[in-house]
């Protein structure tokens, strides 16, 4: 297929526009801006994690479980978060692990002078591709077929599962090994295949831990980050027969490898996900640190690759931009251990690629939310988010958690995930670290407005917000309310302040009330009368 637009990355200084081809460059860049209108540089990990608790050698604390999913009822993320916070060892480990990744991300980002230029370029490549997605999908399909690949199209997750099942059935396959794929999690692939009598073996260490414990992944990069090594030792002892008293990480990892590798050698089929799909060559690219995608995609003679349609990029030379951003943003490392290209079947093998929509086309038509399709699943927004770090990914009750999940999940089911956009402090750190410059916190706020307008907010909360709006829109009423609240807090007994009605008192002490408001102090000490008699 002929190239519709020349998207080659040219050499040259970024200030002259050389890094970004004119066809990709937008009139103005998509950087977040400060109050002075200047472009904000990437944020630094300046806050501190929760204080370290004394080491409790081999202390066993039950792992908090995720949100209680009850059909189509709204997820109670706050309730699940409270249970996670009530487990101090898990809370501390989770918070500090993710904050460590955030700090490493900042170190490597500062080590690249062109970091902001890379973010800008990646953002605009994605915007261009999504704006011309139909053409690039057709180009990808044509080139993949020319490489000897069977290409399938799935409108939703259910169709994806049926297509894969049909492929397996045609080949008499009963066992399938797979590398990590959030798309297959989104489609409920493993559960569907279990019902069809197909054995699925996850080969990624974190995914395998979660599979053995019958849990969903809690993070898009680190699926079992919410677990301690004692948790893993318990899971492996129960499912793999390892020593329950041995929680050495090398022992646990080697035990998983020893039990998984035989499945790899004997599996009837292999499956991978997709980090990037290159339209120019019809290639699927995966990025892993364990090499399990190479094994899953190369050892069995039947190979299947599941691809979200938003993973397209136009040309192979664009891949380097995203590779430089992905692992640095996710783990604070310069590159993943394995960047694997799957272009066509080897002699004597068969390769299938399944392109999946599952709501992506609908989201592409959403004016305020379509840019969320730029996401490269690095997890940087999760690693920096204070809510996610202190509540755990399973508390969201959805495939995608953390800040990016607050945007994506309501596109699947507004009612079920109506509470999630409110699980945010709106501090904007997620936007600052996003390698493709998605305005995450602004989209979270936009979802709050949409949900309010479509009556997906509980009546009590809606009434409280309406009352608050009336007070906040009237300065005199606001000052009177603040004065009354401050006076009341100074005299009310503790039980009257810390009760279920006052959610601000859950898990924290209320600050001491000032004797004088700032407004009152300012009027008393700083406001002067100008020559005309008016107040300055």
Automatic annotation (TrEMBL):
Gene3D superfamilies noted in UniProt: Alpha-helical ferredoxin, NagB/RpiA/CoA transferase-like
UniProtKB keywords: 4Fe-4S, Electron transport, Iron, Iron-sulfur, Metal-binding, Repeat, Transport
UniProt record, GO biological process: lactate metabolic process
Domain 4Fe-4S ferredoxin-type, chain residue ranges per copy: 366-387
Transmembrane regions: none
Ranges for region Disordered: 1-74
Domain of life: Bacteria
Molecular function terms, GO-annotated: 4 iron, 4 sulfur cluster binding; metal ion binding
Pfam families for this protein: Fer4_8, LUD_dom, LutB_C
Basic and acidic residues composition-biased segments: 1-13, 22-42
Xref: PANTHER family: LACTATE UTILIZATION PROTEIN B
Protein name: 4Fe-4S ferredoxin
Natural source organism: Methylobacterium durans
């Amino acid at each position: 297929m002929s190239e519709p637009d020349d998207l080659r990355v040219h050499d040259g200084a970024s200030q002259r526009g050389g890094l970004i081809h004119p066809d990709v460059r937008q009139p103005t860049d998509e950087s977040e801006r400060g109050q002075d209108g200047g472009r904000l540089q990437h944020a630094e990990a300046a806050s501190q994690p929760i204080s370290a608790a004394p080491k409790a050698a081999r202390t066993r604390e039950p792992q908090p479980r995720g949100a209680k999913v009850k059909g189509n009822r709204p997820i109670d993320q706050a309730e699940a978060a409270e249970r996670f916070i009530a487990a101090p060892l898990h809370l501390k480990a989770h918070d500090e692990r993710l904050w460590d990744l955030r700090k490493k991300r900042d170190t490597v980002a500062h080590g690249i002078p062109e970091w902001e230029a890379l973010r800008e370029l990646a953002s605009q490549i994605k915007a261009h591709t999504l704006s011309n997605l139909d053409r690039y999908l057709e180009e990808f399909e044509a080139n993949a077929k020319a490489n000897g690949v069977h290409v399938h199209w799935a409108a939703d997750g259910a169709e994806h599962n049926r297509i894969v099942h049909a492929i397996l059935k045609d080949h008499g396959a009963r066992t399938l090994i797979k590398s990590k794929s959030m798309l297959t999690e989104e489609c409920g692939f493993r559960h569907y295949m279990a019902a069809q009598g197909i054995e699925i073996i996850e080969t990624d260490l974190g995914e395998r831990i979660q599979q053995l414990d019958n849990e969903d992944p809690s993070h898009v990069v680190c699926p079992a980050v919410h677990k301690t090594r004692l948790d893993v030792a318990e899971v492996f002892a129960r499912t793999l027969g390892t020593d329950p008293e041995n929680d050495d990480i090398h022992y646990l990892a080697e035990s998983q490898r020893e039990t998984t590798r035989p499945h790899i050698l004997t599996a009837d089929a292999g499956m991978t996900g997709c980090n990037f799909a290159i339209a120019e060559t019809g290639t699927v690219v995966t990025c892993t640190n364990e090499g399990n995608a190479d094994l899953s995609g190369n050892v069995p003679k039947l190979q299947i690759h599941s691809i979200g349609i938003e993973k397209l990029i136009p040309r192979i030379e664009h891949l380097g931009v995203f590779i430089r951003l992905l692992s640095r943003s996710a783990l604070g490392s310069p590159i993943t251990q394995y960047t694997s290209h799957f272009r066509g079947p080897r002699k004597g093998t068969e390769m299938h690629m399944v392109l999946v929509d599952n709501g992506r086309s609908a989201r592409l038509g959403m004016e305020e939310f379509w840019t969320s399709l730029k996401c490269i699943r690095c997890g940087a927004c999760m690693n920096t988010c204070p809510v996610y770090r202190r509540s755990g990914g399973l508390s969201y009750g959805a495939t995608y958690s953390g800040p990016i999940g607050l945007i994506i999940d309501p596109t699947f089911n507004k009612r079920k995930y109506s509470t999630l956009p409110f699980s945010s402090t709106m501090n904007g750190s997620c936007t600052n670290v996003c390698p493709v410059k998605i305005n995450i916190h602004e989209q979270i706020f936009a979802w709050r407005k949409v949900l309010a307008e479509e009556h997906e907010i509980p009546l009590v909360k809606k009434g409280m917000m309406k009352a608050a709006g009336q007070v906040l829109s009237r300065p005199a009423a606001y000052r009177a309310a603040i004065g009354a609240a401050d006076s009341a807090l100074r005299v009310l007994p503790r039980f009257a302040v810390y009760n279920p009605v006052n959610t601000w008192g859950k898990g924290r002490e209320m600050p001491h009330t000032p004797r004088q408001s700032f407004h009152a102090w300012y009027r008393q000490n700083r406001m002067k009368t100008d020559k005309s008699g008016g107040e300055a």
